[in-house]
Design goal:
- Belongs to the amidase family. GatA subfamily.
- InterPro entries: Amidase, Amidase_CS, Amidase_dom, AS_sf, GatA.
- Its EC number is 6.3.5.7.
- The protein is of the alpha/beta class.
- The chain has a domain of about 200 residues: Amidase signature (AS) domain (Amidase signature (AS) enzymes, Alpha-Beta Complex), CATH 3.90.1300.10.
- About 35% of the residues lie in helices and about 15% in strands.
- The protein contains 14 helices and 11 strands.
- The strands form 2 sheets. Strands 4-6-5-10-11-9-7-8 form an 8-stranded mixed beta sheet, with helices on both faces.
- β7, α7 and β8 form a beta-alpha-beta unit.
- α6 packs antiparallel against α14 and α8 packs across α11.
- About 55% of the residues are buried.
- The model has no long low-confidence stretch (mean pLDDT about 95).
- Bound molecules: glutamine.
- Glutamine binds next to β4.
Length: about 450
């Protein structure tokens, strides 16, 4: 823990951490030592981890990278945080991200942007950018993240590490500061699929305090690591590999597919025609839920309250105006619009119907294939400021949001380095609850 605290100090220039409290970390590490001495250790006891600042923590401030929650101390730990603490993992602090997890470049944090350890001009990806940068720079061996529409898979790809988004409902959402509740999923960013498999088992499980939490038997996600991939069938959505995709990204993905073929897997072409509607559907659904979730920040119950106001209405207006940054405000407005009387049927209801069709298309595809292999993004990490137009930023989520809408698990893994010096990623998607299979496939390549 002390060694990692030193690394975190040396890596401060990345701005990956928002809150570090060495005395708390050392206290947890000493507790881990005691457990090991008493023979009560789990395989994770004493291993450092850091949490995206979307998870609430008792000992570290929880801000969602927003001014709205500056300095906020939660009275409880998120279930995911508590489960990993119970397994003996040592918390190194809280990680920067996009404000309320809204973004793809970690340029939307109220506490400044996060650097990409590969290239000072490149974004680390978002919204779990602090998690990805910290792991890639070796400031922490593994970190939690959240993926609502790609926020684990995309930063993992941009920083050359492995990202694991489990099936929606498998990890608890209790204590995850809500963005879009029907999509928000906790997951991991680590150095390898093996590391993610080790930690995932202690992170998921039924939580009676989360009504969407699924009750599944405990599972050893490492059980298939090292086995052959022979006989597995991998589908490739050909239209995703066409024109819009950087040619070097395509070549790197093809090289991985060739590897799987040589190892005895079968590679087949698939079509996902509904998935191309993913971006508009996602931004209607996610903004609608965000506008509802963020209504709790009213200056009364949590967080920021304006210093001067005339009456309660003015207090709420000023508090929200001062507390929220531009991206949450934009989404609250879009969400309020699509939910309002007269537009609800045309936008929100229509989006829900198309969402169902996208999910059905995936489920039908998974009757024919074990997994889908596809790009994470159309290119590598972009330069700071290069994706500032909100519409182009939203459109860049085209490969990650369809799986989110269907609640599917996904792994993003590094598969090459572009001639621009930045890492290239590939994602593997699977049917609900096939995390072990995806980690197996990723591990085979790694
Ligand atoms: N980039 C997407 C968005 O801005 C995804 C965010 C996420 O997964 N948290 O909404």
């Amino acid at each position: 823990a002390r060694d990692y605290l030193e690394r975190i100090e040396e890596g401060r220039g990345l701005n990956a951490f928002l809150d570090v409290r060495p005395e708390e970390t050392i206290r947890q590490a000493e507790e881990a030592d005691r457990r090991i001495a008493a023979g009560q250790a789990t395989p994770l006891t004493g291993i450092p981890i850091a949490h995206k600042d979307i998870f609430v923590t008792k000992e570290w401030a929880s801000t969602a990278a927003s001014r709205m929650l500056e300095g906020y101390m939660s009275p409880f730990d998120a279930t995911v945080v508590r489960s990993l603490k119970d397994a003996g993992m040592v918390c190194m602090g809280k990680l920067n991200c996009d404000e309320f997890a809204m973004g793809s470049g970690n340029e939307n944090s109220a506490y400044g942007r996060v650097g990409n350890p590969w290239d000072a001009n490149a974004v680390p990806g978002g919204s779990s950018g602090g998690s990805a940068a910290a792991v890639a720079a070796g400031l922490v061996p593994i970190a939690t993240g959240t993926d609502t529409g790609g926020s684990i898979r995309e930063p993992a790809a941009f920083c050359g590490i492995t990202g694991m988004k489990p099936t929606y409902g498998r990890p608890s959402r209790l204590g995850m500061i809500a963005f879009a509740s029907s999509l928000d999923t906790a997951g991991l960013l680590g150095q390898s699929a093996e590391d993610c498999a080790m930690v995932l088992g202690s992170m998921v499980g039924h939580d009676p305090w989360d009504s969407t939490s699924v009750d599944m038997p405990r599972e050893d996600f490492s059980r298939d690591l090292g086995k052959s991939v022979k006989g597995l069938k991998i589908g490739v959505p050909r239209s995703w590999m066409g024109d819009g995709l950087d040619s070097e990204v395509r070549a790197s993905i093809d090289a991985v597919l060739d590897f799987y073929r040589r190892e005895g897997a079968e590679i087949v072409d698939i079509e996902l025609p509904m998935a191309k509607l993913g971006v508009p559907v996602y931004y209607v659904v996610a903004c609608a839920e965000a506008s509802s979730n963020l209504s709790r920040f009213d200056g009364v119950r949590y967080g920021h309250r304006a210093a001067e106001y005339t009456d309660i209405g003015d207090m709420m207006k000023k508090s929200r105006d001062e507390g929220f940054g531009p991206e949450p405000k934009r989404r609250i407005m879009i969400g309020t619009y699509v939910l309002s009387h007269g537009y609800y049927d045309a936008y929100y209801l229509k989006a829900q119907k198309v969402r169902r069709l996208i999910a059905r298309e995936f489920h039908e595809t998974f009757r024919k294939v074990d997994a889908i292999a596809c790009p994470v993004t159309t290119g590598t990490a972009y330069d700071f400021g290069a994706n500032a137009d909100p519409v182009s930023a939203y459109l860049s989520d085209l490969y990650t949001v369809p799986a989110s809408l269907a609640g599917l698990p996904g792994v993003s893994m590094p598969c090459g380095i572009h001639s621009n010096g930045r890492p290239i990623g590939l994602q593997l998607l699977g049917e609900h609850f096939t995390e072990a299979k995806l980690l197996h496939l990723a591990d085979a390549w790694q």
